[in-house]
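We emphasize that the prediction below concerns an isolated chain of 112 residues; any contacts that depend on oligomerization or on bound cofactors are therefore not represented. The input was used exactly as deposited, without trimming of termini.
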Amino acid sequence: MLSYARENGIEVSKEELKEHISYEKNVWESEKEIFEQYLSGRGITEEEFFNEIAPPSYENTILKNKVRNHILKNAGMMEKDNEAKQKYLDEFYKENIKVLEVDKDFIKKYSE
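Result of the prediction step, given as a token string:
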């Protein structure tokens, strides 16, 4: 998906990442005790989590969503139901997205 994003000029802005981090902080506020247990178990602070650990994962999530939406928009699929969108994406990925690392579960899912 990264190559698709590069080829199509899809990027995650610093502002998008900041917004996502802010959203996630608010989500974790409602589950503060569980989040604190998680942080304690990893031996990190909340600041370390949101400044160092989470951003690459969040950026990847945002990028994947942007790629997905770009593919669907270009195919005129935005108004379709979720099942039709997923079916289209499955076929698109199978035909167009190269897998660099062999993931047997992924290959099995999309080759059926």
